[in-house]
Amino acid sequence: MIRNKKAMLFCSQMILTGALMTGAPCLVFGDNTQTSEISQISDHSGEGQIHKPEHLETPDFTSDPNFIDDSTDNTAGYYTILGTTTVSLDQMISQYNSHGQEYPSAALKEGGAETIEDFCTIILEEANAEGIRGEVVFEQAMLETGWLAYGGDSGISQYNFAGLGTTGGGVQGVSYPDVRTGIRAQVQHLKAYACDEVLNQDCVDTRFDMVRRGSAPYVEWLGQQENPNGGGWAAGADYGAKLIRLLGELKEK
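User: That's the sequence. What structure does it adopt?
Assistant: Structure tokens below.
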């Protein structure tokens, strides 16, 4: 009997240790896209910082003399989320600086992006890795955070640049261990909306499986009210149109 009790105690300790190491499953509510849906998944957002894989590069497709902007080269004439980045790093930095916000270096340095150049470089690397247009990732992050000034439900220390998991009423949404993880999650969430292709990198977007795959291949369809499929990233009116206006401004830089 004593031996059995010891065995039971040992097993209980091992189970508790396993739970602390791997993280217990948690209930996660849908973001602005599907607020009524609940999914029981593991929260991987606290696993420790991830770093740039060696194969990632910061491409500048616009430096190619034969470069063609194919972002709206489709029968619908809409802006496609999937594809090659059509702006340069310098254009992104220029647009950010033109909006008069002081880059929050102190807040983002610890997360791996001390300068706006660092921040935009990470966007280009992560977008390129999944075949998502970097300018779409950039403009969405700027729109969602007010040019990194925040002020909404999420805080800058969460490294959540696209309101992932925020449903209003003070719900802060998902937190990530560093800037790159937060950007990667945003890129992966956009890819979930844009197509049904598999991810090229390990999934850090804990809400990836909550998206109806391929339901918003165009920027214009990211807003729920304008999406003919009835889904979308955000509930607010003209969400996609706001992004399109920012994209037009960016390409004039």
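Strands lie at 26-29, 38-41.
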